[in-house]
Amino acid sequence: MTFDYLFRRGKGKHFLVFALFALLPSAVMAFFLPASNLVGLFANYSTVALKNYGTLWLTLFSHARWAPIALISSFILYGFCYASMCAMITRHFRVNDFSIPKIFHSMNEYFFPALTVLVFVCLLILIMHTVGCLFIYLWFSLPSKIAGLVLGIVSELLVIAGGIYVIAALTLWLPTMAFNGLPMIRAMSTAFYKSRTFQKKAFSCTLIPALISICLCIAAYFAGRAWYITWILNTLSYLFCIVVLVTLDFVTFCEVEGIPREDLLQSPYKRR
């Protein structure tokens, strides 16, 4: 249903519009946190020298002088991106009106729920990175480089899978706050409770954008002889994940709650 909404209905216009909102924050985030750096760590396993855990932990981040500004800017921009997408999807599902100008009228209603989820996602990424680096540092200290590489990749994939499970279990969190106006903690517990019956399905749906993002990061490292190629591919990996996951949240919410979607009743661009 998610990919049907993004790509088939409207002939891809939904995805393109959401991608425009996600482009700038994703580009800034790709500058601060180029995920392809992690691929480079594994690709150069035979020559990489890890002085200490802190050095490894900082490897993933950009060390340019503008990196702190990029971090703050991406956080703010993602807040507006999340809120804009929430406003557009909600309006489209409720009254079958997919229009950009009207989002600025209602975007403020979704800003704080979006910001709450954004903070949680940032903390989750930070925890995943910290735990993943801990295992990588442990395995790379083994005498056998091959064994360290294999165990490091397996550990990193398990950490990513754990993060995907958490995101899948909280699929309903953002729309529960946006649609029902519940406070953060109550909406989180409600979302987790209601997700029990479809966590496997949500996990598989969440896994698709994650795998595509991993492929883009691998391509960014091996095809990125020029810095801008690496930057573009990292940007696309963030952009694709954001657009698909936010859309998945609302599509799943309507399906689970049995909320009728006006956009399914007739063509989303047909004037009443």
Description:
This protein is mainly alpha-helical. The chain has one domain. The chain is 77% helix and 0% strand. The longest helix is centred in the middle third of the chain and has 38 residues. The C terminus is likely disordered.
Give, in order, the helices and strands: HHHHHHHHHHH
What is the distance, rounded to the nearest whole angstrom, between the alpha carbons of the first and last residues?
24 Å
Mean pLDDT figure: 84
User: Structural class, from secondary structure content?
Assistant: mainly alpha
How many strands appear in the DSSP assignment? 0
Main beta-sheet annotation? none
Choose one word for the global shape: globular
Fraction in helix: over 70%
Low-confidence stretches: 268-272
Q: Compute the number of structural domains.
A: 1
**Over the alpha carbons, how many angstroms does the gyration radius reach?**
20 Å
Question: What's the tally of helices?
Answer: 11
How much of the sequence is in beta strands?
A: under 5%
